[in-house]
Design brief:
- Helices cover 43% and strands 13% of the residues.
- It has helices at 15-23, 36-44, 56-59, 71-84, 103-115, 131-139, 155-158, 168-184, 196-205, 226-229, 247-263, 278-295, and strands at 28-32, 49-52, 89-93, 121-125, 144-149, 188-192, 210-213, 221-224.
- It has an eight-stranded parallel β-barrel, surrounded by seven helices.
- Helix 9 links the parallel strand 6 (188-192) and strand 7 (210-213).
- Helix 6 (131-139) packs parallel to helix 8 (168-184) and helix 8 packs parallel to helix 9 (196-205).
- The structure holds 3-methyl-2-oxobutanoic acid (KIV).
Length: 296
């Protein structure tokens, strides 16, 4: 439910308003979107943050993981989403390889998401070891969202998509990661796939708003992948996914009904067809009649 009173214009969500929500303990809502139509619907439903996640590699492009998606592919989707968003804060994911080689290249790629994609912030996976790089991007006037815990771009290092931060040592590292990114000045911090207790500790420790996915209810906000909540992922959902709709059934039913109507000549009907103006029709009939008369 939106907290905006009915009839009052909606405020544009900014880095400052996300921080204010944390201070006021008002939950932050975030969903992914990858195209114009979905972005419009998500924005019009008063979701605070729209993330063009690199999860689009799987949800939109059918890749096996997020490692293959390129900056140009991400930009293509970011531009489409930009055109559908008015009020939400728009974050674009920096894909694997786009900020891992040199700092200059990372800043250049981040700037492309702002200049060419219309993003208001970029998201980068990784903790303490990315803090200096993130500081450089923020110095270039580009807000950055951090992302720690289960970071899908590290799938090969993690040996699969596993819940992180389960041992005392791993918890200490996660805390160091969170504090380093907080000090670097991230606009918000995504916490993915970590125990609820650890996410709660991080959320209490950092001044930046935390946005959790599979990180329990104590985070300052929650994000889910739109395809997950709509049953468009063709696989068993993760434990933290709650399905709010069944777009797969909706699309399948509609497509099957269309097919059946075409096969049984029930589509299109006369009212779904264009017609000639009356006068033209009359002239045409006269011409046809004359032609038939000549042939007889
Ligand atoms: O790519 C993505 O959709 C994400 C969210 C799950 C946080 O990174």
């Amino acid at each position: 439910m939106s907290l905006t009173p009915i009839g009052e214009p909606r405020q544009k969500i900014t880095v400052a308003s996300l921080r204010e929500k944390k201070l006021q303990r008002e939950p932050i809502t975030c969903l992914t979107a990858y195209d114009y139509a979905t972005a419009r619907l998500v924005d019009e439903a008063a979701i605070d943050v729209i993330l063009v996640g690199d999860s689009l590699a799987q949800t939109m492009l059918g890749y096996e993981n997020t490692l293959t998606v390129t900056v140009d592919e991400m930009l293509h989707h970011t531009r489409a989403v930009r055109r559908g968003v008015k009020h939400a804060f728009l974050i674009a994911d920096m894909p694997f390889g786009s900020f891992h080689v040199t700092t200059d290249e990372a800043v250049r790629n981040a700037a492309r998401f702002v200049k060419e994609g219309g993003a208001e912030a970029v998201k980068m996976e990784g903790g303490e070891k990315r803090a200096d790089l993130i500081r450089r991007v923020i110095d270039a006037e580009i807000p950055v969202a951090g992302h720690i815990g289960l970071t899908p771009q590290s799938v090969n290092v993690m040996g699969g998509y596993k819940v992180q931060g389960k041992s005392l040592q791993a918890i200490e590292q996660l805390m160091r990661d969170a504090v380093a990114l907080d000090r670097a000045g991230v606009a918000c911090l995504y916490l993915e796939g970590i125990p609820r207790e650890v996410a709660a500790m991080i959320t209490a420790e950092v001044t930046t708003p935390t946005i959790g996915i599979g990180a329990g209810p104590e985070c300052d906000g929650q994000v889910l992948v739109i395809h997950d909540i709509l049953n468009l992922t063709f696989g068993p959902p993760a434990k933290f996914v709650r399905r709010y709709g069944d777009a797969a059934a909706l699309i399948s039913d509609a497509v099957q009904a269309f097919r059946a109507d075409v096969l049984s000549h029930q589509y299109p009907s006369d009212s779904e067809s264009y017609h000639l103006p009356k006068e033209t029709q009359q002239v045409l009939e006269n011409v046809l009649e004359r032609k038939q008369g000549i042939r007889r």
